[in-house]
Amino acid sequence: MNTQHTPTLIYKEPELFYEAKIKEEILNRYNIAFEVFMAEQYSKIHYSDLMDDTADEPLSSKQRLLSWINDNTRGKEVRAGILTKYRLEHPEHFRNGVWQARYFSYFVHYAKKLLTDETFVKKKEIADEFDKSFKNEHWYWQAVAVLGAKLLEYLYDKNALQTDIAKAYVKQIKLSRQLLKSIGKITGRVAKNYGENYGDYNFDEVKEAILAIKQIIEETFKQQLAYSYQIFKSQKEYQLYLAYRKTIKNEYFRNL
Fold first, then answer.
1. Three-class secondary structure assignment of the chain
2. How far is CA 10 from CA 4, 13, 17, 21, 22, in A?
3. What is the pLDDT of residues 174-185, one digit of tens each?
4. How confident is the model at residue 12 (pLDDT cuts 50, 70, 90)?
5. Which pLDDT value is given to residue 1?
């Protein structure tokens, strides 16, 4: 037996060695399960599918939330958003550059703390508005969804996601957005050219037809995404997610 590279701890304290190995394996399973859960719940083409801005009382808008999640560049100055600050301030939540998804609950609390901090959002009125919004349960869970979606996309761009499933979901979302944007430009040019050549003649009908085409294409993308869920169900990552899904919902999200 070659013992050259065998850890000394396995000889001196085998119980501690195997306990550490078991703990590491369990944490890794939680990371996988949590990341797949986030990808399945929060991967949407539009953020409006996650937050609707239809509250009866004045609460922080989806756009305002997104503006503080993202970095903001003005000239040569860059104001770090929640995602960048989190990654820089908590390197311990990453292992070899890959995010450990079990820290999602912490990330949500971290984001809430920043958004309700006047020194971060610059104005007391904005901090107070976010504080009021977080106390609204409906808004709170929608904000969690937006935070989760943006975090997944940010980590994808940084090559910091662990699971193939999450990577595939986010890649498909990004591709769908790019295609819809391209289609929007094409249909916009078609409508403009029609107006220039034919004036108002049947213009409303043409606009309605173009809108219908865009809606059909977008619905097709959503159906493809839903179909992906079925394909992934046979993968080991998804099986781990199913094994821990109840625990994630009952324990982690109860404490968010």
1. CCCCCCCCHHHHCHHHHHHHHHHHHHHHHHHHHHHHHHHHHHCCCCHHHCCCCCCCCCCCCHHHHHHHHCCEEECCEEECCHHHHHHHHCHHHEECCEECHHHHHHHHHHHHHHHCCHHHHCCHHHHHHHHHHHCCHHHHHHHHHHHHHHHHHHHHHCCCCCCHHHHHHHHHHHHHHHHHHHHHHHHHHHHHHHHHHHCCCCHHHHHHHHHHHHHHHHHHHHHHHHHHHHHHCCCHHHHHHHHHHHHHHHHHHHHC
2. 13, 6, 6, 11, 13
3. 988 888 787 777
4. low
5. 47
pTM (2 decimals)? 0.82
pLDDT, tens digit, 9 for 90 and up, residues 22-78 = 888 889 999 999 999 999 999 888 899 999 877 677 899 999 999 999 999 888 889
Distance in angstroms (rounded) separating the CA atoms of residues 255 and 47: 24
Domain boundaries, the chain: 27-255
Percentage with pLDDT > 70 across the chain: 82
Please name which of 224, 242, 230 lies closest in space to residue 36, comparing C-alpha atoms. 242
CA distance 22 to 136: 40
